[in-house]
Specification:
- The protein is built from 5 helices and 7 strands; from the N terminus they run H-H-E-H-E-H-E-E-H-E-E-E.
- The chain is of the alpha/beta class.
- Helix 3 links the parallel strand 1 and strand 2.
- S-adenosylmethionine binds next to helix 1.
């Protein structure tokens, strides 16, 4: 189990460390104002945010992508035990997945990961409207809101408005 986590940490560049309680609360607060569309979590770890999201928004589709085997498995078990029919959890690299179904994307990654996410989002068409990121900013976008959480580091939670549209490549906030 430990070996599998170390292996995936080396492959993806970050461990499955969960968001803190305060960061999670701030992210949930921002998600509250994002309408009713599907929420995709990129790198959903152990499900510390994913599961509360699926529970809090039973009418919204919630999708998690996680490459690390054991955390992914933990989320799959929780989904089954809690009967979360609106939740889908995939053991896949989100960089190679079709994200056009997303309305909101949430993540807690690392600087290089945010570069990769930004490049990926530039290819997404559909109705993606918001990205919410714990701690790490998108390199070429300006957030419309930043919450500084009350922890030792005053960690930021960023909200970006993206407005990617199917027939219109315009994106706001750049
Ligand atoms: C710091 S953890 C955050 C976990 C969770 N989002 C949270 O906030 O509690 C980042 C997770 O992203 C996963 N990850 C990183 N890059 C990934 C990729 N390209 N595809 C799927 N999962 C990825 C890692 O395995 C790790 O579990």
């Amino acid at each position: 189990m430990g070996g599998s986590i170390v292996w995936s940490t080396l492959i993806v560049g970050i461990s499955p460390m969960p968001s803190s309680n305060k960061a999670r609360q701030a992210m949930m607060q921002l998600i509250n104002d994002t309408g009713t569309g599907p929420i995709f979590e990129l790198g959903s770890g152990w499900g510390n945010l994913l599961i509360p999201l699926a529970k809090s928004y039973p009418q919204r589709t919630v999708v998690g992508y996680e490459l690390s085997l054991v955390p992914w498995l933990a989320s799959v078990i929780l989904k089954k035990v809690l009967g979360l029919d609106n939740l889908q959890v995939y053991r896949k690299n989100f960089l190679y997945e079709d994200l056009t179904g997303a309305s909101v994307v949430v993540c807690y990654l690392f600087p290089d990961g945010m570069h990769a996410v930004e490049n990926k989002l530039n290819t997404v068409r559909g109705n993606l409207e918001y990205l919410i990121s714990n701690n790490f900013s998108l390199p070429s976008h300006k957030p419309i809101k930043t919450i500084q959480i009350d922890d030792f580091y005053k960690s930021p939670i960023y909200l970006y408005e993206l407005k990617y549209r199917t027939n219109n490549c315009e994106h706001k906030g750049v």
